[in-house]
Give the backbone structure.
Amino acid sequence: MIENLADRLVKFALETRFDDLPEVVIVEAKRRLLDAFGCAAGALEDEAPLVARRAAAKVGGDRGSALFGGGRASADWAAFSNGVHIRYLDCNDTYLSLEPAHPSDNWAAVMAAGEEVGADGRAWITAAAIAYEVQCRLCDAASIRARGWDHTTYGSLSTSLAAAKLFSLSHAQAVHALGIAGTTGTALRLTRAGELSMWKGCAFAHAARNGVFAAMLAREGMTGPAPLFEGDMGFCQQVSGPLELPKLGGPSADDWMLPKTSIKFVPAEYHSQSAIAAAFELRPQISDLTKIRSIEIATFRTAVEIIGQDPEKWRPKTRETADHSLPYCTVVALLDGEVSARQFLPERLSNPALLDLVSRTTVIEDPKLTAGYPSGIPNRVRVSLEDGTILESEVAFPPGHDKNPLTDAQLAVKFHGLVDPALGSSRAQAIWDRLSRLESDPQPHESISLLNPG
């Protein structure tokens, strides 16, 4: 019999061991977990994470897994709540391909499933490497966004395999988990169209919950639909189209996808990061920001489709819409010289001078820039001043891109900028120190409680 894709994915997940991972994968896994914790700390008091935490706590108890911000819940609900915290600021890592993704979203499932079975730090790293590999390879294989599905659909698959690995499921059980997760985890692209809601920052968290829940059911004996990918009315026919994946993992660093992901330096949709970087470069050249006549952003097709064409992007009313608006993020970077949580507060979103300049900003596709994607995210910002001066900056690899990675010092600046205001510098340093030793930590779940306020 020909091996189907579900069997192949499960075999990879269950056979991968910590000792198989190149050192760079281990190092980069820890850096991305540090980044995920920083993003979660920065979102502790935001409305959607608070809603998620309250809902999860209602199915809590002495067992289960810890929640960022305090409390406990069943592993699947902990994956959801913690996933909302990691994702909500739109500041966690990114992978760009036929389908874009934020693979550090997988960490919420890893932490929740890992704590339930008492997994050590080596097991966390292994499960995360598996999840990153599967999600990113699927993103390379097919664009589901083009077919109306949200990228988080792939997350149900990657998180179910991570949970199956941590739960030590048999091959048959893991195939059932993948079948359950894959048939129930398809998400509509509506999540990221028009005026965006809180759900934009929660959609992958739901996928993580779905993946863990599917593995929990399979562990107890539930069977799932098969063959998931090749079957009639299956995933390939209904969602992705044909999927061809290369060999997963391998002995060298180049064989693994985790180090090829990019860490964001500012909390905005990733395709805008290079436009923001260009705005930062131009700002010191403008002596009077009130003398800006107009702004033109030349970009690539994917950026136009995701963050540069909906009318709502020119007058965002929610944080979720604003951080997915190429014109807004570029203008606020130019005016404020920073992009942080402050730039998405209601009073900033409604500022007349800011909105006036956004209204004088145009977004166009440049075929040459489209050709440079996804190896880079090239954006060119052209600022016209009232005296006729034209200033221009083009950036393809912003700070944090895998071709321009953040140094540990830059990552620490981002981390402390998010964690210190929420929890204090000493607590932030304790989190940094503990997660930096993840591979030798026998009880890594204890680090989650370090994000409890007070």
In short: The radius of gyration is 21 Å. The chain has two domains: 5-265+430-451, 270-395. The mean pLDDT is 96. The domain at 5-265+430-451 is CATH 1.10.4100.10 (2-methylcitrate dehydratase PrpD).
